[in-house]
Amino acid sequence: MAKKNKNNSLRKLIFNDKYLIITALILAVIVWVVTSLNIGTDETRTININVPIKISDDLSQQLGMEYYTLQNTVDIDVTVSGAKYVIGQVSDKDLNVKFDTSNVNRAGEHSIPILVTNKSTRKEFTVSSVYPSSIEAYFDVEEGYVFGTPVISEDSVTVTGPKSYVDNIKRIVSEVDFGSKTKLKESYTQECELKPEGNSVEKNYLTFTSVSDEGKKLNSISVTIPVLKQAKLPVAVNFEGAPSLPVQNAISVSYSIPKVNVGILESTDISKAIIGTINYSDLSVGVNEFTFDTNDVQGVYFIDNSDSEITVTVTVSDEYEEITVPIKTSDVTVGGVPDGKKASVFGLKDSRVSVIVPKGTLLTSSDLKIKADVSEENEDGEYTLNIKPNDKSSWVYSDYTANIEVE
User: Fold this and answer.
1) Radius of gyration of the chain (CA)
2) pTM of the model as a whole
């Protein structure tokens, strides 16, 4: 009889609305908790961290290059995603931040990607985004050295292959991989693969040949990167055509940039940065200005781009004056006439020659040696005149030509 009463009590409990509601709520909470903990992976969170920039030491070991920047740290926002209960526990200690220098293979400015990954062994989450995603950096070889302009065995190549591929090629690149090279104090040479860049370009169907040697097929080119020693050198120019006995302090020279930062081969003995040559025939009395493009200078590499043009001011002393000397065709001596032929001077472009002389000096055409060389035939019959004063303190200003017929 007691057993029957027990069954009735259990039936009443099960079919009691109050207890059913409580049971349903408990089950709902359990389901919600389980779902939140195990299924919900759509939660995100942004963590702001300040990261020290430490890449110079690594790069020095790899390439012998140094890293330069105005900032020592960078603030980045890292967005992480994962289960809600995990995301709430993630901190900067769970993040591994790396500056990717794998593509740095030359000196100059580079954009260095910031790579952030999960380094926790217990918390499962992923890094969705990083802002900023990179830093700007400048790289150069070891202190006191600098990369010069690369020298390549081929300036251009001929590409043949399917038209759709060839038409899509934007350029051909070759990448220098320094590998395990740790000290760069000498020029570095490497055979580099030719890589076409463009949309949907398949290299396997392309053939590369030399432009200078049409029959020569190319798979690579030789690239030499000069490694130059940094130096600060005074600027100078060379002079040609100077009189053998000029007046004392005949000229004075000044430079818009008197000293420049350059790179030179360590094995060379260069004490001046020679930016060009000035001929005395370009100098008149007073101030004369000349501008030289340092990109055309051989033997030195100018580090500062602001030094691309240098103005040279040459002042001819007021101890000199300019006079004009009349000349005629009979004053011209012609040399280099081929055997069996005769040369005739039948015209002068200018019948008066400007000569820079010490003040008070008087000259006539007989005081000038005027020569023309016709050994190399000139189709228009106009030849340069080489004019030198007998007076060893004077020089001829400007250039002069004569019309000469050889027959």
Assistant:
1) 40
2) 0.58
E strands along 243-340, which residues? 251-255, 259-264, 273-279, 286-293, 301-302, 309-316, 320-326, 332-335
pLDDT in tens, 78-130: 999 988 888 888 999 999 998 887 777 666 677 889 999 999 988 989 999 99
Classify residue 373 as exposed, middle or buried by CB count within 10 Å of its CB (0-12, 13-18, 19+): middle
Contact 232, 261 (CB under 8 A): yes
Sequence-separated (6 or more) residues with CB below 8 Å from residue 30: none
Amino acid identity, position 29: V
Strands 273-279 and 227-240: parallel
Nearest to 312 by CA among 254, 384, 265: 254
Q: Give the pLDDT confidence of 150-186 residue by residue, as tens digits.
A: 888 888 899 999 988 888 888 888 887 765 554 566 7
368 backbone dihedrals φ, ψ, rounded to 5°: -115, 140
135, containing H or E segment:
strand 134-141
Residue type (1 letter), 336 = G
263, 146 in Cβ contact below 8 A?
yes
**DSSP labels, 80-128:** EEE-HHHHTT--GGGEEEEE--TT--SSEEEEEEEEEEE--SS--EEEE
